[in-house]
Amino acid sequence: MRPDSLTGQLHRLCKELAETAPGELSRVGVEAASRLDGPLLVALAGRTKAGKSTLLNALVGERVAPTDMSECTRFVTWYRDGPEYNVTLAGEDGAATRLAFERQGGRAQIRLPEPPPRDFSEITVSLPSRRLRRVQLADTPGFDSTDAMVGARTRRLLERPEGEGLLPRVDAVVYLLRHAHSADLAFLDVFDESGVPGSPIQAVGVLSRADELFDGGLEAMDLAARVADSLGREAQLRPLLGAVIPVGGLLAETAVTLTEQEFGWLTAVSAATAEEPGLALLSVDRFCDSAPGDLPLAAREHLVQRFGLFGLRWSVARLASGRVKDSAGLASALSAVSGLDALRDVLERRFVSRARRLVCQSVMASLGAAAIRFADREPAAVAGIRGELERIRASAHELAEIRLLDAVLTGEATLSVEEAGEVERIVGDGSPLQRLGLGEGVPIGDAQATAAERATYWKERAESPLLMPFERDLLGIAARSYEGIYSELSQARGVVARASPRLSGRRTVRLHRGPTRVRPTRRRYWGPPGSNR
Amino acid sequence: MNLDEAEGVLRDTSDQVVALCRELGREDLAVRTEDAVARIGRDVLVVAVTGEFKRGKSSLVNGLLGVWVCPVAPDRSTAIPTIFRHGEANAVSLTVAEGQGQRVVKGVPADLDGMVLEGDRDVPGLRRLVAVAEIPNRFLESGFSLIDTPGVGGLGPGYGEAVVNLGGVADAAIVVADAGAPLNLDTIAFVEKLSRACPALVVALSRADLYRHGGAAGEIGEQLSDRGIEADVIPISNSLRREALRTGDAQLNAESGFPALLAAIESISSRREVTARVAAEAKIRGVVGALSREVDARQTRAASPMPDWATLVAEARAALDSARKDAARWPTMLNDGVSDAATAAEFDLRAGLRRALKEFEEELELGSGAIRVEEFRGRVQARVQTELAPVFEALESRLAGVERELHSLFESEPADTDVTALPPDLPSEWGTPQGRQNRGLKAAAGGVYGGLRGAQSGIMLVGVFAGIAGFGLGTLALVGIGAAFGGKQLMDERGKRALSRRQQARTAVRQFIDEVQLQAARTVRDVAREQLRRQREVAGERAAACVARRAEALRLLEEERERTVAERAAQARALEAWRSRLDRVGARLASGSDR
Predict the structure, then answer these.
(1) How close A515 gets to chain B, by Cα (Å)?
(2) Would residue A177 count as lying in a domain?
(3) From CA B135, how far away is CA B141, in angstroms rounded?
(4) Same domain, yes or no, for A269 and A309?
(5) Which residues numbered 524-543 in B keep a CB inside 8 Å of some CB on A?
(6) Above 80 in pLDDT, residue B83?
(7) B303 touches chain A (CB under 8 A)
(8) Is residue A21 located within the same domain as residue A69?
(9) Residues A29 and A127 in one domain
(10) Which one of A429, B69, B251, B570 is least enclosed by Cβ atoms within 10 Å?
(11) Higher model confidence: residue A473 or residue B368?
(12) Are strands A510-511 and A497-498 parallel, antiparallel or unpaired?
């Protein structure tokens, strides 16, 4: 970590607070410091029955979240990486109670204390999971739940007044829509005003249960992609979400948890319905009431629960065509068709690759709020915090870059597709080479030449007389980013730069000799539609 | 008394009431009565298909029709109400608003897609109102008219308007919901309101083929019965229906749920007469009440001793003169009233926004430390909203005051107050051939679906029908305006010092408030203009009616003066005869409604 980076500066501030500030304020410093090094906190939000828990399971790769209408889906539940399975209930006051946790038929079951608390308590589930190491996920109750308290929990999580209580606020949100609805808009809007996400930088839209949208026909996911695309262009949604990705949550969950037995059953169905594939799969009831492949009813009902009608039709068609031969092949095909791959890709680019900046923003907000809270009690310390935050805000180029990206994603600044892709790339936590979009093993000298060339390009671009003043400023930011990359490269002159295998968010350049693992450069642009002019 | 007898009584009494109306010179009440009775005999049940976006409403219409005429597209929704009715013409027409008037575009069924689906580029200034498809179809011929409606609760107008709109037009409504999940809060509230506004209701759960045993049908049935809503809940599948129609597979057709749905509609259709009769009876009672009051008044006059004619005639003449004067005066009164209200609202608006601006400027001037852009912006918006709310509320009540004043000026008809509880008469315009049909459509487009206009008019919902309180206040409005303000770069850390940021913030607030003022002032003017236009139409008629009534009174008075005592006696007898006829009809109605 470079001492002059945003994270570095904030670390210094937190350390100072922790060591010198009196009493409670020092604890704020300790907590903020641990947040700076911790994972990105992402919440899945949406209306009831939008498929949040199912999608969470798909993202974690395990059926950990209860997906029924049980009590647990009525609390905000955090899923995080830990050495062993462990469930705790954290009260508003920070007191934690351990809860019983068991698995039944591949599904997690959590026992809540009787009677369940009626406050803003949150559940935390720890489990060993590689996928949760960099990102911690929150499953939230539907904000339009019939029980007002339940909906309030979600609102409270997302709108959490900074620094209030001991529970951390979220850094980013995955928002599930079943179709653009005025309730969604009102929710996202509140969200926007509360200062947390409300920008495509920190929020991504998901058109959920996309496989059910078009009567589960084989072309359902293609049609859903069209709908998602036009939703992403919606004038009212674009500034809030930037892009909407169609995802069939159930299918995605099944893709990552597919068993050999299920594959065997599907193969039997496929063989039995080879003559007339459409007939048995006309409806769920037909499928269950007929007996394709002599499967027992329980097996057929199980398949329906796991795949849905679209999933069944699609998988059977795949198997029949011989394009899929084994369960691994089916799993990866399902993962692609369900939209899970695309979503992961977007989350990676939007959130994970900028995790440090997003966390820094949250920490700065928390510190700012703490300053307000302690203004009367500790005026001297607070003045110090304010001054330092002010200085950081004014000087950190990372924050300027966020502003640039926000303008690009919301369509406020009009750039060509290539330019927008370039901005998305340079505003990341990755290594200089990654940010330049160069493969590994490129000599530093060449990389520097590229950086210099791009800096010149953006400078000239910024000088165009046709631009509005604010656009000129924004484009200048891109030029300065390239200058920054150039100087970082200078510090590592003479060696080959390699991306750290984990995107730790530190912009260090590691020394590396030996075989390189090339991370493919992504040229595909997933940004907000409409900029594809 | 069985149904036929009840029907007989009603027709009998209505004939008498119509005759009495004519004899008493109340042609308007006669027409009203005839309309209500005609509605009983109407051989078409108007069924509206409604529900949230993308639930398969248009597909369901196709399923009912058995042919694919209603446009369906995966990524575009139905934008305007579309009416399907039986006719040999096999033609479609689209009504568009053009300036102040309306224009009808004719076409063939293939044109329907372009007419009713959301367009990528709607021509600005050309607002589509309603489409009508007249096609030869067995289902429609058997006595139905279908209305496919735009989804409710999307990014456009809300549930409330849809309820009002449908309640006035349809005899029955099919609410289409998703079989996959229980109803959400909004939908439940929508169904609840609709069940009060619309005589009969069916809830169709689409995509039932995707779920086992009708999906959430059981839960949804409980949700409805918990709230005391009487409605059949029928799981259906549009894709199975399509397949069944293609292959002629009866079993599949049964599985699609459409036979059950059709049966439910048929049963509503068979009950329809009862519903319509109850409505007609209530209306006739209202008319009888109005006539009784009229006869009472005349009897009182006739029974009085020989009056002081000179005074009476002078009084009546004075009343007529004043009515004439008022008739000349009302446009000025209306204009003044409305423009006063608008001016006052604009003044309030300016004052309120100036107050808010001053506060924020002071805060920026005096404060120190960082401005948190998002928080600050939220605060500005909230503050502006609190200033806007009372302005629009006051405007609404002022405009209502103007309307009341006009009413009292022209002594509006008491008969109206007796029948307002009933749905409007529009449905009687349906299903009848040309001529009246146009009137019905115009009313349907202008009044009943008037609320929909808000959808196209940009930032603020404009339209008195939507309720003035509905716009200017919603977050929706401020999102639109907020864009002018919300560019984060405006207040972020471009400059290195807090001072310059504060200056930028000040500029931004000023810009924002300017913009809000501009928009809100425009809305105020739009509302005022709309109100003016609406009032002008009714006030003109009312004024003319009032003058005519008083002239008639004067004429009668003068006639009476000429009359001999004998004539007066004869007239008293006639009045007595009317009186007893009215009483008989009233009693007959009362006995009929006891069952």
Answers:
(1) 43
(2) no
(3) 9
(4) yes
(5) none
(6) yes
(7) no
(8) no
(9) no
(10) B251
(11) A473
(12) antiparallel
